[in-house]
Amino acid sequence: METILGLDLPTLWFLVIGGLITGYGVLDGFDLGAGSLHLFFNKEESRRIALNAIGPVWDGNEVWLVIAGGALFAGFPLVYGTILSTFYIPFMLFLVALIFRAISIEFRSKEPMAWWRKMWDISYMASSTLITLLLGLILGNLIQGIPIDATHAFTGDLFTFFNPYAVLIAFTTLSLFMLHGAIYLVMKTENRLYAKLTVLVNNCSKFFILCFILSSMSTLIYIPHMSEEFKQNPWLFALPLLAVLTVLNIKRNIDARKYFTAFVFSSCITAILLILFAIGLYPNIVISTLDPAFSISIYDAASSPKSLRIMLLMAAIGTPLVISYTIFVFWTFRGKVKLNEMSY
Amino acid sequence: MPSVEILSRIQFAFTIAFHYIYPPLSIGLGVCLVIMEGMYLRTGNKMYEDITRFWIKIFALIFGIGVATGIVMEFEFGTNWATYSRYVGDVFGSALAAEGIFAFALESGFLGILIFGWNRVGKGVHFFSTIMVALGSIFSAIWIVVANSWQQTPTGYVIEGEGLEARAIITDFWEMVFNPSSVDRLSHVLIGAFLAGSFLVMSVAAWYIVKDRFVTPAKAMFKIGLTVAAISALAQLFTGHRSAEYVSEYQPAKLAAMEGHFDSSGVADMYIVGWVDKQSGHTAGIRIPGGLSFLTHGSFSAPVTGLKAFPENERPGAVNFVFQTYHLMVAIGVTLIGLTLLALYLLWKKKLFNRKWLMTIFVWAVLLPQIANQAGWYAAEVGRQPWVVYGLLRTSDALSKDVKANQVIFSLVLFTLVYTLLFILFLYLLNKKIQHGPAMTLNEEEESDEFSKRNIKQLQAPEHP
Q: Would the pLDDT of A45 be above 60?
């Protein structure tokens, strides 16, 4: 099989998708988390500042979801169809939540009435939280594996998804995004809102550390196939160790009020956790709980070498472009939020 | 209970039709915004800045809903049409991935600067962002229409595997991109979008003129909109003709349905209006005898393949629907040419803005390109049935095998409720922005006192932050 840099094409594309999902987690993670924290701010001005802190960037962040979805569709069409049709209802709720979130951000400040703004504040908080929980729930189920048969048809029902492990992963995701969002907001605010957020960010970090410990333990105990690869290659244990160090560094930097560094570390932990998941899966991409033979590996699902080559070329050209204007936009809106006539 | 197939088709048709209200407006408005802001940079006239800012606010509203409803489309390929996704992923996926990485990322990235960047970046950088957003939305259309055109006229692929395992594999990327219908369809779609956007600009401007508000900026807006619209309406005649040619060559069953032509091989008429009776295979109406024969073969007596030449299961079932939507689109296209030419003539005679009746027509004419865009897509997509990929994959085979009817009913009800709410809110906020109008910076000396007073009133009632 054709290889580039010693990796075959499906593996490379697996890495590309992993990179895109990580990009989505790091970027949309903070604005989703900011949404989940929204109702903790009581004053009208605080809510507007929080909203405008993500205002110019949230739409660009969400693009990573669209690209990751497109990349999965293009590279592993079988997996795309299987995962999306298996999680039919969760994804439909996810889509509706995305719509509500977009219009909440967009519509909230268009009317002065208190009830109008309160309604959209609640909708913004609820939809952000629902999106995060659904993503976590789907992730949790994919870590455990799902009951798919030899024809890749899902044999469970909606209740299959609501198992304790997946629910725990859902809340871990929520705690991570809330922490990530709180750190982002604290960087973008000043004065009283900043003071309030320094307390909030502390609580978020405690919530996250609790969830992190619980989900790490549960994964080790209940999901043996996730640690198989690690047992065969002991040097991989450096990664969980790195994860623990990263978490400790988030806490340390928050305590030292070095929020930018904390933000870098909370971005890193998102990436590391996803890398751990990817290593546990590889070379499978969907694990069947009915029979390991029914699992879908990247080689079962990959598009043709020609198609993958074309898309790798596109990714090679496109990624630097996307990253450069993402940086440009963040640079343009750097610093503390100031409200003006164009603000939400 | 209705079948999963029909439910999934209804859901896809509903969600895509709703989505398609917005992208054409974004694309068309994008072009108008580039012209408006370009005029501002060129003339330095603050009025152009005011109207640019005004339209950016409306653009943001439209764009936001377009994105939110567009993500739904991408996901629905996997949720409801898993077999289709697996079948076309190798070919179609690269176009979709290109859309995401080259187009969507561009427009969404620069959108933040477009909306929030006025005081953050220089005029040049802002103008650059406006161009990038406009280009991004056009690039999006390119890749999406390329993918859809591949479904109409597939080339550059081979079929691998058989039965349920069959899938299309790409053999030549550029042959896939430049499949026989993509250039014609893309130009037709883009110009349809320019019409949608420019007619929105003219509609709002005409309303101000009728109501005698913001008259000076409204006239400027109207002229920009009219320029884009007049060129587009004329060009649409050409791209429409080209699109009909590709249909006649590659999708004869669709062409026959579009004109209600049943005779397996006979002279085909062209209808101005008509009604198709599928049972008797007869079409009645006002027609140009031999018109379709002339259009396809250049001779009024040349035979054209009719619907009866195709087995029942290889031709579109909803013949009258395809006929009506196609004719509606053509009728509107002709109307738009007439309207814009009349307006141009009156503008040249300097009588345009006194003609209140014509302005009132333009207020409502915003609906026409929207209806034509929708009708055109319905004719194209329903006319392609029973295939989802023409000649290769049937719509009935393209479903997700493990999705149940009650799941689709749930999502369909959910989308119906959410989209109804969304549409009401959209109209409410659009109306509010239009009522509020562009912020005026009183810098024109030629303004009458009366008009200035009105402007001051506008200034005293700023939009809520």
A: yes
C-alpha span between B215 and B206 (Å, rounded): 9
Which value, in Å, is the radius of gyration of the alpha carbons in chain A?
20
Q: Checking phi first, is residue A145 left (phi over 0); if not, alpha (psi -120 to 50) or beta?
A: left
Residues of chain A neighbouring B465 (CB-CB closer than 8 A): 48, 109, 339, 341, 343
Average pLDDT over residues A92-104: 93
Mean pLDDT of A131-160: 91
Confidence of residue A140 (pLDDT cuts 50, 70, 90): very high
CA atoms within 13 A on the CB side of B57: 25
Q: Which two tokens stand for residue B218?
A: 């409204």
pLDDT of residue A181: 94
Are A37 and A181 spatial neighbours (Cβ–Cβ below 8 Å)?
yes
Identify whether the C-beta of residue B365 lies closer than 8 Å to the C-beta of residue B339.
yes
CA dist., res. A108 & res. A128, Å (int): 15
pLDDT of residue A1: 65
Q: Cα separation of A87 and A170, whole Å?
A: 15
Considering the domain boundaries, does residue A124 fall inside one? yes
How many separate domains does chain A show? 1
pLDDT of residue B453: 43
Does B108 contact A63 at a Cβ distance shorter than 8 Å?
yes
Q: In 3D, which of A263, A253, A207, A275 has the Cα closest to residue A19?
A: A275
Q: How far apart are CA A136 and CA A36, in angstroms?
A: 14
**CA-CA-CA-CA dihedral for B375, B379, B382, B385, to nearest 10:** -170
Q: Where are the domains of chain B?
A: 4-460
With a CB-CB cutoff of 8 Å, which residues 379-438 of chain B face chain A?
400-403, 407, 410-411, 414-415, 418, 422, 425, 429, 432
* Lowest pLDDT segment from A214-223, A316-325, B358-367: A316-325
Structural domain contains residue A185: yes
Q: Tell me, yes or no, whether A186 lies in a domain.
A: yes
Q: Which helix (H) or strand (E) holds B271?
A: strand B270-277
What's the token pair of residue A235?
């040097």
Domain presence at residue A225: yes
Cis peptide before B386 (omega within 30 of 0): yes
Nearest to A64 by CA among B172, B105, B443: B105
The residue-averaged pLDDT of A195-218 equals 92
Interface contact B85-A80, CB threshold 8 A: yes
CA distance A106 to chain B (A): 7
**Which of these, A340, A341, A342, A339, lies nearest to A49 by C-alpha position?**
A339
Q: Where are the beta strands (DSSP E) in B306-391?
A: 387-389
Can you tell me the distance from the alpha carbon of B169 to that of B152, in angstroms, rounded to the nearest whole number? 16
Residue A109 in tokens: 């400040």
Give the domain range for residue A232: 7-332
CB-based contact, B96 to chain A, within 8 Å? yes
Query: Could you say which residues of chain B have pLDDT below 70?
Result: 440-465
* pLDDT for the residue numbered B277: 84
CA distance B153 to chain A (A): 19
Question: Average pLDDT for residues A208-233, to the nearest whole number?
Answer: 89
On chain B, the residues whose CB falls within 8 A of the CB of A307 are: 90-91, 93-94, 169-170
* Contact criterion met (CB below 8 Å) for B74 and A69: yes
Torsion of CA A276, A277, A283, A285, to 10 degrees: -170
Contacts of residue B150, defined as CB under 8 A and 6 or more positions apart, other chains included, come to B88, B91, B92, B95, B156, B176, B179, B182, B389
Q: The complex's ipTM? A: 0.87
From A48-52, A295-299, B244-248, B440-444, the region with the lowest mean pLDDT: B440-444
Question: How many whole angstroms separate alpha carbon B144 and alpha carbon A29?
Answer: 28
Contacts of A234 (CB under 8 A, 6+ apart): none
Asked if A131 and A95 touch (Cβ cutoff 8 Å), the reply is no
